[in-house]
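Minutes, structural biology subgroup

Action item carried over from last meeting: produce the C-alpha cell record for DUF1266 domain-containing protein (Chitinophaga filiformis). EB confirmed the sequence was re-checked against the source entry. Recorded below for completeness.
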Amino acid sequence: MKTIIIIVGVTALYILFVVIKLIKLNRRAKEIALRAKQDRAMQPEEEEAPDLNDDDTLSLHDRQYIACGANLAYLHGDRMDTLETDSDQEEIRAMLKREWHINTRDKLLNNIDWLVNHGHRVYFKPIWNILTTLPVRERAVELEKLQSEFTAKGDEISVDLYASNISEGYKHLREEAGCFEGKKCKLDALTWDLGRAINLCRWGYDAGFLSRDEALGYIRKFGKDLLHNYTTWTNLGENYLMGFAMWSGDLQELDEAYGAHCDLLSEDSSPWVQLESR
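Output recorded by EB:
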C-alpha cells in the first residue's frame, strides 16, 4: 500500500512539474514575441508590415505559395497577398544590390539557383546529424572531417561556427520559446532557403528582372515544395528561424524574427491565419 502511495505521489509531482514547465515556456514565448513586436512598433512607419488585402488576380494556391516566404516579407514590411511587394522599384534595386550584391537579371537568377539547389541546408543537415547522433566527445573530430570535405570543394564556410550557432539557436528557441514541439516537427532549414528564394522572385519582378509569369512560375514550384515538406505553418516558419540562427548567430535578432513568426501565427491580417487550409 505504501508503495502505491509513493508511486502516486511521485507521479503527481512529475505531472505538476511538467505543467509548471509548460506554463513558464508559454509565458516566456509570449514575452519574447511581445518584446519583438514593441521593438518593431518603435521603427519608422514605412517599415511597419502592411495589412493583408484581397487580390483577385491570385488564386488561393498562389497566395499560399507566396505566404511560404512570409517570415522575411513580414520583417521587410512587404505586402503579403500579391506578387508585388508595393515597394518603389529603385528602393528594391538598391536593397538587392546592398544586401544581395544583385544588380542584373543574371545575378538574380544565380542567387535563386544557389538557394534552390544548394543553400544553407547543405551545411545544416550534416552538422545537425553530428550534433544529434554523436556523444559530445566525438563531435569535434566529425566536425573537423566535415570542414575538410567542404574546404576540398572550395567552400569557405566555418563548420564550427555554424555548429555553435545551430546548437545555441536551437536551445534558445526550444527552451525560451517552446518551439519544435510535436511528433511531426521537422528540422532541415528548407524554409530558410526556399522562403528567401520566393522573396527574391517577388523583388526581382518588382525590380524588372523577371516577368510576372517567370516570377509566379518559380514561386509556385518553391511553394509546392515547402507545403509538401511541412504540415503546419508553425513548422514551416520554425525552419526559417533555424536557418536564420545558423547564418546569424545573433540571439537578439533571432528573438525579433521569432516575434514576427508569432505575429504571423496569430494576427488576423496574417496570410497564415487567413489561409486556413494549412
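Discussion: Residues 2-44+60-122+172-274 form one domain.
Next step: EB to file the record with the rest of the batch.
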